[in-house]
Write a structure and sequence with these properties.
Blueprint (H helix, E strand, L loop, with lengths): L1 E7 L6 H14 L4 E7 L6 H7 L6 E5 L6 H11 L4 E4 L11 H9 L5 E5 L6 E2 L4 H14 L13 E4 L15 H8 L4 E6 L1 E2 L11 H15 L5 H29 L7 H28 L7 H31 L1 H5 L4 H10 L1 H25 L5 E3 L5
Helix pairs in contact: 8-9, 9-10, 10-13, 12-13
């Protein structure tokens, strides 16, 4: 059964039309469903209007007197819902119920466990937004970019299997519970289904300074979720820093304690460097596995494959670093003429050689990280385009 959760506050003018449209769509498409209205004790009598409709439609009405907030209302509705598929949408008619069958089809066909109603994929759009609201929405989406690749992370219109949120600790702060589910949810495939967002016909928008402040606080907290690319990158850099000490320590131990310097500087250094590189790579692999990416794979064959892939990525990154340094130094006359003021500042502070090395290190760090995240410890939540289905 499909449970549609609608948080409300002062929406009495919109509720009758919304209910009629939702159940018309469900009936026409032979979808078993219920509507769960979670009202924050609206002074305009929204709950009373919803209660009056219960005799004609399959509706639950929950009135919260001591809590406020769209996100916490959505969570309350999902907890009270009877269906195995859950949908959250706004009460102001900005989310068209006519899209519900398309969203549900992705889940029924096992194409995705989470479906986002999207304004920013082909076929989606926004009607009659002011420039100010477009700028606010764009900025909010950019803020969410470090934690998700979804094109419309601000969408409040989404559908999911119940197991996507089972065992997940959701913190209902702010109004973008959908973004939190995108980041924290238990799913492998996500679809963005296009829809056209329409401005509310009645009532007032809830967007204000407090809502924006709560969103910023909420988004920042998601930056440090264990599956956030931003947080994983910070940990990956920390592991890399520790790996440098391991590399230097093992090199010194091998070179001096085992008297490899007796073979001559070049040969001794080569042997010692090879051993210290292997030790550092092994150290980095182990710590990134258990801490950075929290990979739980324990099968010996799989772990062995992971390890050698990690080594391959590290060697590939080292080769890229060498090529970057060689190319930039060889052709420095060609690119140095295009230096801007920021590049000039770095060059004056570091020297041309150190500047080139810094650029190479940054690029190699990114290559190492994304290679590890998406090749070695691959656990990606895949975004599937509707056209692929």
């Amino acid at each position: 059964m499909l449970s549609i959760i609608v948080p409300t506050y002062n929406e009495k003018e919109n509720i009758p039309q919304l209910v009629k449209r939702i159940f018309k769509v469900l009936d026409e498409n032979k979808i078993e469903g219920e509507l769960v209205i979670v009202d924050d004790n609206s002074p305009d009598g929204t709950a009373k209007v919803a209660e009056d409709l219960k005799s004609s439609y399959n509706i639950q009405v929950i009135v919260r007197k001591n809590e406020r907030g769209l996100s916490s209302a959505a969570i309350k509705g999902m907890e009270s819902a009877k269906g195995d598929v859950l949908c959250v949408m706004d009460a102001d008619l900005s989310h068209p119920p006519e899209v519900l069958p398309k969203m549900l089809k992705h889940i029924q066909n096992e194409e995705a466990e989470l479906v986002i109603g999207s304004r920013h994929v082909p076929g989606g759009g926004i009607e009659n937004w002011t420039m100010k609201r477009k700028i606010v929405s764009k900025c909010a989406s950019l803020i969410a970019r470090p934690v998700t690749k979804v094109k419309d992370p601000m969408s409040g219109f989404f559908m999911l299997k119940r197991e996507v949120i089972e065992g997940v600790e959701l913190k209902p702060k702010g109004y973008k519970i959908g973004l939190e589910i995108i980041v924290k949810g238990n799913y492998e495939h996500l679809v963005e289904e296009p829809y056209v967002f329409k401005n509310r016909a009645y009532g007032e928008s809830k967007l204000g300074a407090k809502v924006v402040k709560n969103y910023l606080s909420h988004a920042l907290s998601l930056y440090f979720h264990k599956d956030s690319s931003f947080y994983q990158f910070l940990k990956f850099c920390a592991v890399g820093g520790l790996g440098i000490f391991v590399d230097l320590g093992v090199f010194s131990l091998v070179y001096y304690s085992f008297f490899l310097n007796a073979y001559g500087q070049i040969t001794g250094t080569l042997y010692s460097q090879t051993i210290s590189f292997g030790a550092a790579v092994t150290f980095n692999y182990a710590l990134n596995k258990v801490w950075t990416f929290q990979d739980k794979e324990r099968r010996k064959s799989k772990v062995t494959k992971q390890y050698f892939m990690f080594v391959a990525v590290a060697l590939g990154a080292w080769l890229i670093r060498t090529l970057i340094i060689d190319t930039m130094l060889t052709y420095q006359d060609a690119w140095s003429s295009y230096k801007g003021p920021l590049v000039n500042l770095f060059v004056s502070l570091l020297s041309i050689e150190r500047f080139v090395l810094l650029i190479a290190i940054i690029i190699v760090m990114l290559v190492n990280f994304f290679g590890s995240k998406y090749l070695v410890f691959k656990r990606e939540k895949r975004i599937v385009k509707p056209s692929e289905n």
